[in-house]
Amino acid sequence: MESDKTSYLGLVELVDYEYLMDIHGVDLAEQIYAEFIKRLQQWIRDCDQSKILKDKRFLVVLNRLDSGGSLELATAKLQRLFDAPYILLGQPTFLEINAGFTKINGTELDTAGRVRQARIALKHAKQDRVFYKLYSNNSSTGYEQQKQLIKTLYRALDHGEFQLYYQPKIHAGYGTVVGAEALIRWHTADNRVVPPNAFINVIERHEIARPLTWWIIKTAVARLAKWPKSINVSVNVPPLLLQDQEIVDVIIDALDIHGVAASRLTIEVTESVMMDHLEQAVEQLNKLRALGIKISIDDFGTGHSSLEYLKKLPIDELKIDRVFIKSLCQSNNDQVVVKSVVEMAHSFKLKVVAEGVEDQATAALLKHLGCDHLQGFLFDKPIPAKDFEKRHIV
Ligand code: C2E
Ligand code: CA
Ligand code: CA
């Protein structure tokens, strides 16, 4: 019967192709890409259609799968094909993929429309860090909701509803406050305080990231000007903005206006930015460092960190992610990780910050393992500037 067969259009992508080119060079990256295509060829059946797109994604039409679970079976097979590592120069290398699918039923939408839907599904798979997603109308509702949220956020920025909270960073040896991380909060008109995880992901992919981040930098530097010279401030900068030429001017202006030394400002960036556009990132980071600004790698250990790439990056500090800290006292593995990160970082002359320190025993252990600075609820939560000054600045 016709009705119990469904066809799907899918897009499959090799994760971080540009990163592969950066770390392995074009030839080896092409070799990996060829393996990606080879495995996909093993996946599709004779009755399916496929095409390699200009953006290197693999477009596939899975024709007439049995309805009810067959897409799951097809994707399970796809995932299995990528379970085994590819041996590149004698080293096992895992090929990571993402996919997005959309159902083809009836003729109400042309191929371009279907490809657009599959692209949306693929984007959502990447955002949610899952291997694949199937497009549904909800995806576009999600899109509408996002648009609405962005509009509200622009209004919030105009109306001064954002506030920076500050969380102290402590010297592991002396126990003194060496700085603070500026963390955004949204005080809505109806008196709610919204933490960043509710909106930061949306912001970081949207144009609003620019005016908001420029505001964060200016506000944090203005506050820093009132603090003793021994205290620094760290601000989080979304990956994409690091490639924005304007950031350098915004920082120079803020420091000039308030007469603050560049060395008192640290920019925290996550690893993903380096991964996607290594050359550009290095160039831009060099410019910032030439001004005297410090660069910190945030959430270290959760991304693609490797010795190879730390060597290439102009940075000053590594911030070990909370996941390695929260059970540190109980986990021998985490202790080994922290110890080796500290050794490696110090050999590159980098400072090490541990974040998410919640108890005294963990703080003592981190000090013993050689961490330079500590941050976490043990010392204080992120709090409004006035409270930070009252509690931590004498
Ligand atoms: P992050 O950069 O890793 O910031 C540290 C987060 O850990 C903060 O959450 C902080 O409140 C939380 N934290 C601090 N100490 C502890 C602890 O001892 N235990 C636990 N469980 N958590 C602790 P927050 O303020 O909710 O921020 C979450 C994330 O949102 C930040 O993670 C950062 O990625 C992003 N974010 C926050 N403010 C900004 C900002 O101004 N700009 C940008 N681009 N991103 C921001
Ligand atoms: Ca941070
Ligand atoms: Ca972090």
Q: How is the secondary structure organized here?
A:
Blueprint: E1 5-14, H1 17-24, H2 26-43, E2 49-52, E3 58-66, H3 70-81, E4 86-88, E5 91-93, E6 97-104, H4 111-127, E7 132-134, H5 137-158, E8 162-171, E9 177-187, E10 193-194, H6 200-204, H7 209-224, E11 232-236, H8 246-258, E12 265-270, H9 272-276, H10 278-290, E13 294-300, H11 307-312, E14 317-320, H12 332-347, E15 351-355, H13 360-369, E16 373-375, E17 383-384, H14 385-392
Parallel strand pairs: 6-7, 9-11, 11-12, 12-13, 13-14, 14-15, 15-16
Antiparallel strand pairs: 1-3, 1-6, 2-3, 4-5, 8-9, 8-16, 8-17, 9-10
Helix pairs in contact: 1-2, 2-3, 7-8
The protein binds ligand C2E and calcium ion (2 copies).
Give the gist of this structure.
By secondary structure, this protein is α/β, with parallel strands linked by helices. 43% of the residues lie in helices and 24% in strands.
Task: List the main descriptive attributes of the protein structure presented here.
binds ligand C2E, binds calcium ion, 2 domains, eight-stranded mixed barrel, TIM Barrel, 394 residues, globular, five-stranded mixed beta sheet, Alpha-Beta Plaits
Distance between the termini: 79 Å
Write down how many β-strands occur, each being a DSSP E stretch of 2 or more residues: 17
Bound molecules: ligand C2E, calcium ion
Helix content: 40-55%
Shape, principal axes of CA atoms: globular
Mean pLDDT: 89
Structural class: alpha/beta
The CATH superfamily label of the largest domain reads EAL domain
